[in-house]
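Record pair follows.
FIRST:
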Amino acid sequence: MTKLPTDADLWKAWLFLDPILLAPPRRAEGSDGDDEAFLPAIRRRIHLLLGGKDEELVAELSWRKPPRSAPPDLTDEERSVEQAKRAERKLRHYHSVSAAAAALRAPVQAKPTNQSTLTATLQRLNPQVGDPAPPPPAFLVAGGGDRPDHRTDAAVPTRSLPTARRPINPPPPDAIPTPIQFTTAQVLAKVRASNAAAAGGPTGHTYHTLRQLLDEDDVPTAHVVDVLNLIAAGKVPAPVAELLNAGRGVCVPKDDEGNVRPIVVGNVFLRLIGSLGLQLNRGACDDYFMGPSVRGKQYGVGTKDGCTLMAASIEAFMESNPGSIDIAGGTMNAFNKF
């Protein structure tokens, strides 16, 4: 692809075939171990590819375990045991402590969620073709009786004007900075430190498959890094850019009652490029959000596990300063609203 960067078919073949070839081997229902070793599974899939058996090869990626559900009358102790089992499976399969910790906190659904519920949830939060456009909210200026748009009707809620978004001022074409470029060592370090249990995007690539694809500093890995640099520079065919920007809609359990939270999982290559780019430019991120003259630190952008670090910092400060007060602000249902 580095020699033929405009060949869209070559890009698509690489994006879709790699996750199929590198997917974990199938497991028999009820089995805790792999029925097939990893290398024999790859060799078998390559034979399928060379033999033109496309349907069997695609079935390797489309196969999924049936959803697990728990009886509706679980006690608190039984729910804790179920969460512990899930955490153990995550740790054994992905060797990921963060995935195991998330499994310990994830709710245990008492009843399985059917397909119609998932579809309705996504449709409710996303405008559908033909739906009427919702009216814009009425923003009223608070205070100042001499303002022409001021209202004193108590039945009409008073809301302040929304803060205007900062204008986007892209540089002129002749002043566009040189695209960021990654080295093999930087990419390998990032992939090895990533969460192998993170979900994959539309093509099926995950950090788990990337660890197989980028196993060591060799020639194939260098070629993949070259492709990542092409993507970072935007040097991809237009149809491939649309494919890379696509996301996979996923409904994850929200609570013990069976409600779900829809999220979109992006392409793992874009996530890798964006995360690594922010990591390498965290100083510039601090200057952008905090200002170059401000002595402070922001944990939202360019800092790994920033939320966890901020929570730990606040907790340590509160322990060292017993008379201090921590005020936390939140918005109800913010994820679904914004």
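SECOND:
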Amino acid sequence: MSKHGEKRKNVRVQFAEPIEATLSNVRVRIVDISTTGVRVEHDAPLVHGKRLVLNFPCEGEILSVAGEVVRCRLDHSAARIGTRRVAYTSGLRFVDLNDDACDALWDLVIGQSITNLYSGREDVVGVSPTEFAIVS
């Protein structure tokens, strides 16, 4: 585990501004993403274990990936969506990814990792700048 208590084996990245997306036609914001899953903010609870489709902009196109809800919690610190005062944060594990979706996610994560590292942001979880330099 890393110093943050992370169990992840994959790099996940955060964005300077969350990405607007839809999750089975519900508006959400992507907070961070990896090649195996995503954390989103939203204004209504999601059912643990439910499979949903996440649609979001990726390299000029809309990427659609299926995900299974692995956690959902009330998060008072989450950025508020619309005018509602309650916000939830959920983690989804990607399922049934095809090769094109895997490639697009890999490109997104690596591209955002590079952007974060060069802009001085410390939003790459699971890899240090030294480790990144070694593997890149």
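COMMENT: The first strand starts at residue 12 and ends at 23.
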